[in-house]
Design goal:
The structure is a homodimer of 388-residue chains. Chain A is an alpha+beta fold and 388 residues long. The first copy, chain A, is built from 16 helices and six strands.
């Protein structure tokens, strides 16, 4: 019976290693402590780097008290935090804090005469009774106080045994390591997210800068990205798309960079106000291959480069640069082809006025299976509900 | 005495949570097992996803056997792996494998008559004696066999007690979680590295594409990045640079993108074979601000954008776009300014021939404290040892 709580708590401690979210981690451990040690409530004050305070992350009890999480905050000036950070206040040698002991210390003659100590312990007792805490244990990682473990009283009203307290100390150090592990994970994941965002933002900015060279296509890239993603989402409902997350990511990057090769086309051709002659057309038609050339050193962009290369191929094989046919054309290219054509048709050009959305749509419909991939056209048409 | 090994091993298991390199982790646990259980040797076969084999990662003994790590590989066909993956071969209910038990099973009448079982157990015994293993325990994470824990015999020649075996089982499941934790961490870190590389490669490719518009500056960006980094490394030896890693990273990106604004300068001006008139010069001088404009939506590039903005400022305040002076010019800009000037001077231009490295260097030296930041010039000169 004496060690019945151990097994369960040890199991909980063991599971902590794979919990990489600090809040889930704390919830797990608090629940296990309350259930196995049978206390009125328990909670953890967790240090928040950005705010420089210890916030009561969770405090729950089977019966009795429940302090709303996030409400109680302790600064470095709080007596509970100072107790653990400044060893001169610890009058016994244990690393935990027991309310009854502090009350006893206050009755000592020496303490009574020392105003600093007296005031400190009075404040500490006041704080502990306010949050109904009988026992507190520090959660240290090396010298860093990551948090404080607080416990109410046992449902049996008995004192905590020295065995239980020793066990709780070990548990605290396990919790410290688990919190550390989780926060390292959180940091890494956050960094990864920031990095991915940075990557997309940067290529988007550069693509737009390159697009600005072609004064007839302002906003084109952004609109093609947007429409391509919408088509892909509809397409996913029609047919299976393998490794969807990766596919969507590649589509986004390919759509962003699909016209990157235009940087290799002279401005005089891009901005010519009249229609182009054959030689000039040949130059324009090289832009997918110039795009490939620019991005070719980047190994991780293999699929994206392929998609850019073929975004002017036609389903019937009459496109460029290679005249690929039907299923040989990468699906991402086929999607961009439709989005690209729609946006081009609905934009003014020096040599013709823009088509209306209706006209452009029926043009694309007419070319289903000829210029465009049939399923992609079906998905494209579903993007506009109510014929809008 | 009976549980003396526990405490130490539990401590080792506890430390595993913060070890995010699988190999270090395994080294730690093997060392602790050998020391505390007093066995001739111990090792772990770890599953390698890419190769689809179990590789003996480490096997060390205080005395006796030491199998070189990486040498022994087990495929899914190996009897040791099949024993743990196919429950029909396990004739007892424990999750561990004891050589002596298998030998005993082989003597059973039923097994003797069953060729499949007989052959399997014979192969298993042969393999275990080859690698001198008396006891093996699976390292399972859910249904996934991450590895196999193998142990030689105890130095005392005694059998492993059921207590020890039960404890080793728990330890194996701790090791499983720790390996899982470490490999998740490794995956995340690898992904981050790949992402950072992708980011740099992509902006490098795009910067070079933009540079290609200006036919007189082929290779300029790459050389400026290279020289800027070299100057920064020398500068670090002369003066303190706060948060060096961040600084170097920002310098690299800023150097890569320093001329990105040239995309907003008409090709006719960039490629003009004769010297520019005042109006054309005004256009050229706008390129730092155009660069700022292009990158301004990207919050995380704050320092980089600032550095690009001021890379044509002069130490004496006579530069553009703002005429900033001395310490007001960001250090990154001051470094790029020197690298940029050196590379421009040592390259042919339509209206002048390239200076020799010697001439360019003395030109920069002459401008120390005028056009260029004095410390940066000192660092720059140190980049060329022996006056090379």
């Amino acid at each position: 019976m004496r060690i019945s709580y151990r097994k369960e708590l040890e199991k909980a401690a063991r599971q902590m290693i794979l919990i990489h979210r600090t809040d889930t981690l704390i919830k797990l451990i608090i629940r296990a402590v309350i259930r196995n040690l049978r206390v009125t409530h328990a909670g953890i004050f967790l240090y928040q780097k950005d705010k420089k305070v210890y916030v009561l992350t969770i405090s729950k009890g089977k019966e009795g008290i429940k302090i709303p999480s996030g409400l109680v905050r302790l600064s470095f000036d709080s007596p509970l935090i100072r107790y653990f950070l400044d060893s001169s206040y610890r009058l016994d040698k244990s690393n935990y804090l027991i309310l009854e002991n502090v009350k006893r210390w206050l009755k000592r003659g020496k303490i009574k005469k020392n105003k600093i100590y007296k005031d400190f312990f009075k404040q500490l007792i006041y704080l502990l009774s306010l949050i109904k805490v009988k026992v507190a244990l520090p959660i240290f990682f090396h010298d860093e106080l990551l948090g404080v473990f607080v416990l109410g009283e046992k449902l049996s009203k008995k004192k905590f045994s020295s065995d239980e307290l020793a066990f709780l100390s070990i548990l605290s150090s396990d919790v410290a390591m688990a919190i550390r592990n989780a926060s390292l994970f959180e940091d890494l994941r956050l960094q990864l997210e920031r990095n991915q965002k940075l990557f997309l933002q940067t290529i988007s900015a550069l693509a737009q800068a390159i697009e600005a060279k072609d004064k007839y296509t302002i906003g084109h890239t952004e609109r093609v990205v947007d429409l391509s993603l919408k088509i892909a989402h509809q397409l996913k409902r029609i047919r299976r798309i393998k490794d969807w997350d990766r596919f969507e990511h590649n589509l986004k990057i390919a759509a962003l960079l699909h016209d990157i090769g235009k940087i290799g086309v002279p401005e005089t051709i891009l901005n010519k106000p009249t229609s182009l002659n054959e030689k000039e057309w040949e130059f324009i038609k090289r832009h997918p291959l110039i795009g490939v050339e620019i991005l070719s050193p980047i190994k991780d962009l293999g699929k994206v480069i392929e998609a850019i290369k073929y975004h002017h191929e036609r389903f019937d094989g009459k496109g460029y640069p290679e005249g690929l046919k039907e299923r040989k054309i990468p699906l991402i290219s086929a999607i961009i082809a439709v989005a690209d054509a729609y946006d081009a048709m609905t934009s003014d050009r020096p040599y013709r006025k823009a088509l209306s959305p209706q006209e452009a749509k029926s043009e694309i419909k007419k070319n289903k299976g000829l210029q465009f991939h049939p399923q992609v056209v079906d998905a494209f048409l579903k993007v506009f509900p109510n014929g809008k």
